[in-house]
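Homework help board

Subject: predicted structure for assignment chain

Our instructor gave us this sequence and asked us to write out the predicted structure in token form, then describe one feature. I got the tokens but I'm not sure how to describe them. Can anyone check?
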Amino acid sequence: MDADILIIGGGLVGSTLALALARHEVTSIVVDAADLDTTILPAFDGRASAVASAPARMLRALGLGEMLDSLGCPIRAIRVTDGTAPQFLHFDATGDDEPLGRMVENRHLRAALLEAVRGAGGVTLIDRAQVAGLDRDDHRARLRLADGREFTAPVAVACDGRRSKTREQAGIRLARWSYPNAALVTMVAHSVPHDNVACELFYPTGPLALLPMTDHEDGRPRSAIVWTVDAAQAEGARKLGPIALAAEIAARIDGTLGQVEVVAPQAVWPLGFHHATDYVAARLVLAGDAAHGMHPIAGQGLNAGWRDVAALTEVLVDAARTGQDLGSPAVLARYSAWRRMDNSMVLAATDTLNRLFAIPGRPAALVRRFGLAAVERIAPLKARFMAEARGETGKMPALLRGETV
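My token output:
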């Protein structure tokens, strides 16, 4: 037997899982088709992620706290509005030393995880490797690479993204649909400080998020932009020059950030929903985007994947310590039961919010604004929304509390 766990996909979810297991003396082999060193270059991916407070505790427990503090920007408040209407829903971390989350460029997350995984005992990382097949029987999973190498373990974990070939080859079906929108992602420098406030402005075409980042290299405040546009306009948005794009953004945020300058190339990503009908099969587990994908309306996609990691780590470590077969149906069923309900609720909430705010017309806008104002005044309901944003609902694994298993 080559390792305790096979992990297919070495991205943010797969590498975090490998590191978490290594911290608990569970060995893994991680295989990825990409050259992982290229994924940490500034030109590779201009996206940034909102690391919610609970997953941030896990990353700190895994030794990545210095990266979060030095390269991440704390989110001290979140403001939600229907367009630029005066009614709003406001969450803040006043009186709480822990921010609601931190905005971190994906390349910094990848670089920190890659360095930590390469330095961790018990992890074998193999990139630039094509998977030829995954064979599973009653006793083990066997991973075959195109170059002839083979590895075995009691269980394999698919972390190979929303187009997971591992999931497809296992015959696991999806509930899925595409949204008539795309997400334009870029970075802007601006004249008015963001004060560590994340803003989400909802329009019929979808939300426009202003997410606080660390300052630009010239000292100006900087924010990440995630702007949902009509799919029909996506190609035109992709081709906008920086001056035209800055003007379009400024027109939609009503001076919130003052003078705006685009300081990074824009990328446009199609938006869709998918949820696997099963999270487990014989000797196989799905985690992260291989299991679920949602609208970025609340920034929960990566955080849901990290919550998968925390739960799966706890399940596998408990099984290893008690001498159980890590790939047995009973062990894998515990992970599925733990994560499927939570993910189903988050997926349903993001889809519903997107559809609710997409209804055009003044009557619908009035209802939305009344609802935002009502939630702002109802403390228990507002607290529930804040717990969801932090990733603190349901039964929390030890890692999400900042503790080892």
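Reply (TA_rk): Your tokens look well-formed. For the description, you could write something like this. The mean pLDDT is 89. That's the kind of observation they're looking for.
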